[in-house]
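Running this now, will post back.
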Amino acid sequence: MLRSRAIEAIYPALEDKIVVTIMGACAQELYDCGHRDNFFYLQHAMGLASSIGLGLALNLPDERVVVLDGDGSVLMNLGALATMARYRPPNLTHIIFDNGSLLSTGGFVTHTTSGLADLASIAHGSGAPHVAAVNTPYDFMEAVGDAFDRDDLSVIVCRVDAVGPDHFGMDLKLPENAFRFERHIREKRLMTGD
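Update: finished.
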């Protein structure tokens, strides 16, 4: 399964959610679907998308927050899984695309390739209440639908091919993305009276 196809499939459902992506291929593939101001592409901070998503979910309890992450990123910040489970925000869905590769930083294999590290088992062992391990488009869409419908922390580990975009480059630079993202959240909160 291609991560780009998985992202395309859930793109329409992300319109009303706060979305944080990790750097590199995942960010580029979401951007290529069409940028929205509720998307924050966490460039140059590998490992921290889950932490930022957790902070947003805790501080914006009326918003649905989705983190689009990668196996290399999660392995760099495994403690975030336990912290997420500890605080268990009901509005957070953490989607981990596991391609067994540090694709965006040279293509080196990660620990998930060897079979020694199972991110779904680690998330479950960390206390995440709802964990799904999927590797087909149908199972992925079912897991995402369930997560978006439930009011509880959900982690989805989706096995994907180690294939990235044929280009990297966004017209949107990090400072502008951050300003527009913050403005989107602030204006939405003003409209709802929060």
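The mean pLDDT is 91. More later if anyone needs it.
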